[in-house]
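The material for today's practical consists of a large collection of protein records. An example says more than a description, so a record of this kind follows:
***
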Amino acid sequence: MTEQRTQYDGIVIRQMTLAVGAAAALLPAIGALADVGIGMATGGSVSALPPDAAGRFAQLIANPALGLYNLDLLNLVTTLIMFPAMYACWVVLRREGPAAGLALALGGIGTAVFVVNNPALPMLGLSLNFAGADESRRTLLAAAGEAILAKGAHGSPGVLPGFLLLSIANIILAGEMFRTNVFSRVAGILGMSGNIMLGLYLVLVTFVPQVRDMAMAFAAPGGLLTIGWILLMAARLFRLSRTAPRFAAAHVADQRNKRIQKFMITGLR
């Protein structure tokens, strides 16, 4: 009975993990769709962003939402929320797709690197001080802002490691989805194609400044393919979370029968 109870508890935890992973995947899909829409609405040009920290401060003061978006705050939020979905995928793939463990590890490292280097909130804090500072103080704040942007601004070499690790992790995870029978092959194809295109976009905006304005040709379709992948992932995780193994159902029935027997014995007494 103890062993059966342990198995049952393990299944309940597994089912909850998959349900949380499915729900977690939906939010990044919405965020990615918003990212594509905002990028297309604003032109998606990295070269059109303010070129220095003072310009970023001015944008944050005039339009905080746009300023934070241009500093990858939306990507930060969706990246954090996506990790539970990656973990849920590893839970269901770990037997048939052992490389999913490597994807989870790379995804965890990439998430940590991206979060640490993200400039959105530090720049917002500096911009609040910048607005009311005198000229000498503004010079110091601008220098601090430039250091932050060098480490994590969109299109800068500093942001490359986190984004690249996440792209590689997603490609490996999608490859395991394609190779195994847990997820559909369509999900694997969408995931690999979308993340490869987003990886190309990242390389272009980082190392080929001349074609930065053309990079949206990779980013927009890559983002849409990735959204499709995430939605298929969420749907499959949700279906799996609703599938209870036989011994879990048997345990519930056994406990119900025991309660009935106990009630009948008590009544006879």
